[in-house]
Amino acid sequence: MTLPNTGNVAGRGARGVLRFLGLVALGGLTGGLAALAAVGFVGAVVWLNDLLLVSPRGRMMFAHPEWLAMATVLVPTLGGLIVGQLHRAIPEGRPHTPADAIAAVQTRRGRLPPRAGALSALSGLVSLGAGASVGQYGPLVHMGASLGSAGARLLRLGRSEDNITIACGVAAAIATAFNAPLAGIVFAHEVVLRHYALRAFAPVAAAALVGHVIAAEALDRGALFHVEQLAIPRPWEFGVFLVIGGLGALVAGGYMQAILGVGRLARRLPLAAPLRPALAGAGLGVTALWVPDILGMGQETLRFATIAGAFGSVELAVVMGLKLAATALCLGMGFGGGVFSPALVIGTLFGALCGTLVGLTGGAQDTFVFYAICGMVAVTAPVIGAPLTSLLIVFELTGSYALTTAALASVTLASPIAAQLFGRSLFDIQLLARGLDLSSGRGRAVLEDARLGDLLSQEGVTLRPETTVAAAIHALSQAGHGEAYRVDADGRYRGSLTLADLEVMREQDRGDAPIADCPATPRPVLGPEASVWVAMRQLQDMTGEAIAVVDEDDTFHGVVYESSIARAFLRYGDELRKEEHGAG
Amino acid sequence: MRARRLWAVMALLSGLAAGGMASGQTGQTSPATGTGPLTVLSWGGAYERAQRRALFAPFTEATGIPVAVARYDGGLAALRRAVAERDVPWDLIDMTRSEAMAACEAGLLEPLPAGLAAPAPDGTPAERDFVDGAFGDCSLTHSVFATVVAYRTDAFPGRRPTEIADLFDQRRFPGPRALQRTPSVNLEWALLSYGVPREALYRLLSTRRGLSLAFARLAGLEDLRWWETGSTPVELLLDGEVTMASGYNGRFFDAMAHRDAPIAILWDGQVQEHEVWAIPRHAQHAEAARRFIRFATASERQAALTRHIPYGPSRHSAMQGVTTHADSGIDMRLHLPTHPLNAGGAVIKDDAWYARTRERIGELFRAALLGETGND
Question: Using a CB-CB distance cutoff of 8 angstroms, which residues of chain A are in contact with residue B352?
Answer without folding.
Answer: 61
